[in-house]
Amino acid sequence: MKKWLIVHEYGKLDFERIYGKLQDDIRDLDVFLKAVIQKFNL
């Protein structure tokens, strides 16, 4: 049971780290798209 808990906690931390990076990437993409839209006045 304890081993499963450790794996679960590690998996959760890993997921949060990956999800956080994904959010940063999405934010960068959003900023990039807004800049392109402004440049071409779409």
TrEMBL record:
The keyword Ion transport does not apply. It comes from the Bacteria. It comes from Desulfosalsimonas propionicica. GO terms for cellular component: toxin-antitoxin complex. The lineage of its organism: Bacteria, Pseudomonadati, Thermodesulfobacteriota, Desulfobacteria, Desulfobacterales. Keywords: Hydrolase, Nuclease, Toxin-antitoxin system. This is Uncharacterized protein YutE (UPF0331/DUF86 family). Belongs to the HepT RNase toxin family. GO terms for molecular function: hydrolase activity; RNA nuclease activity. Gene3D superfamilies: bsu32300-like (1.20.120.580). The keyword Nuclease applies.
